[in-house]
Protein: NHL repeat containing 3
Organism: Rhinopithecus bieti
Amino acid sequence: MARFWVCVAGAGFFLAFLVLHSRFCGSPVLRNFTFAVSWRTEKILYRLDVDWPKHPEYFSGTTFCVAVDSLNGLVYIGQRGDNIPKILVFTEDGYFLRAWNYTVDTPHGIFAASTLYEQSIWITDVGSDFMILWLHGENGTGPAKFNIPHSVTLDSAGRVWVADRGNKRIQVFDKDTGEWLGAWNNCFTEEGPSSVRFTPDGKYLIVAQLNLSRLSVVAAPPVGSIGECSVISTIQLADQVLPHLLEVDKKTGAVYVAEIGAKQVQKYVPLNSYVPAFGS
């Protein structure tokens, strides 16, 4: 027992020495040690999958949107341009499968809603008609008003999260009644959100900011509360990449980003097993 306490005391003395040495001598040792602790306890990095897709030459237009069919291992990409395939289909490993140019004119958003019994892909196209269940659409800055509502997603509690890009905020509604539940605006003072998606465990939102070429991980609030927006970490993309819309694989947590500036879709995967955080 005495030997144990001697070891504890020695470890404490060693750490105190590192603190003093770093403070007065500028040693990088403690900084590296502290970073390692922070990285392991707070931030698990994503990395860019440089091998995805295997054939980027199929990106022949402006890539506006991306959707992941996790049940079937497929990635759908919508692109705009003249005389090009409007929808591209890849495997999650990045292999090109097929493309089509019929029925779609100017894709803006795409959503995979496949079940065990059928594959279903929904595409928002300029001029398309939809059945309206409830509607909030008045232009303005107040609650339940919008300025470029650009992306929408659902959480497991039945809340609808809307990227109100022009107003630099995310608004939240009840999915059944349309009741306004609250808004986040403290995280988006520089640039409004262009896309928002939840991680598979529902603990975080991945948010794209178009003109900043930035992705952020934001802590999701508990059920029954909206609270304040809290950014956990960010990833800065290259200038003028312009992330337009993104999608998160519900099984692996991989993030696919449609970049209208770079005219490509990039894939970010967790370094370890799925844990939803980026490295700043």
In short: The chain has two domains: 42-128+239-271, 140-235. Confidence is low (pLDDT under 50) at residues 14-42, 274-280.
